[in-house]
Amino acid sequence: MKSGSSLYTLLAAIPLLASSTAHASDDSLAPIGMFAGVCLDLLDKPDTFAEVMSNRGDRVQDAEAREFLGHKPGKAWYVSHEGIPYGFSWADDGTCRITIFSGDAKGLAKEFGDLGRMAPAGYASTAELTSIDERGWTVHTYTWHSDGEDRAIQMRLSLNPEPGTGLRGNASARYVAAPR
Question: Which residue, of 58, 68, 85, 151, is most buried by count of CB atoms within 10 Å of its CB?
Fold first, then answer.
């Protein structure tokens, strides 16, 4: 990545994007705002992420941590927001992820799409076609990138279409090679 990169400007704008996508009247959409405000805001700061999670949540170990991490090595926490539990994790490969246990799938997909399309000035948002993964979950992917950047931010939301299963889905963010 270039030094003095405008990607840092993008990361500074994330809290504003998160607040603009929040719907105070609908707590089921809170996970997307938390994802933006934590994962995207701290994507360049894994130590700060770990400190924030340690101060706000309970560390998770073993099989449960592996589930939150998508079976990758890293660290995971339970965090409660207004009495609703969420799993947050930071994989060793730099992927930040929130595990969502409940919520309206259509509403979460719309909220994530709104966030994905809201790339700040100077950045393009590229959406991949919505797909179905090997578990039958719906996957939504957006990438934010800018000309001249070596890397881009990829955001992915995977949603379980079956309500009441105890796991609604997860949203993740990570750096990827910039599109050419």
Answer: 68
Read off the amino acid at residue 37.
Answer: G
2 lies in some domain: no
| Alpha carbon of residue 164 to chain centroid | 22
**Single pTM value for the model:** 0.81
pLDDT at 3 over 50: no
Task: Please list, in sequence order, all residues whose beta carbon lies within 8 angstroms of the beta carbon of residue 152, skipping any fewer than 6 positions away.
Answer: 143, 144, 145, 146, 175, 176, 177, 178, 179
Centroid of chain to Cα 98: 6
Range of the domain at 107: 7-177
Domains contained in the chain, number = 1
Query: Over the chain, what is the mean pLDDT?
Result: 83
Give the C-alpha separation, 170 to 147, whole Å: 29
Within the chain, residue ranges assigned H as helices are 7-21, 30-35, 46-56, 62-68, 105-117
Instruction: Give tens-digit pLDDT for 84-140.
Output: 889 999 999 999 999 998 888 889 999 999 999 998 788 899 999 899 999 899 999
- Within a domain: residue 93? yes
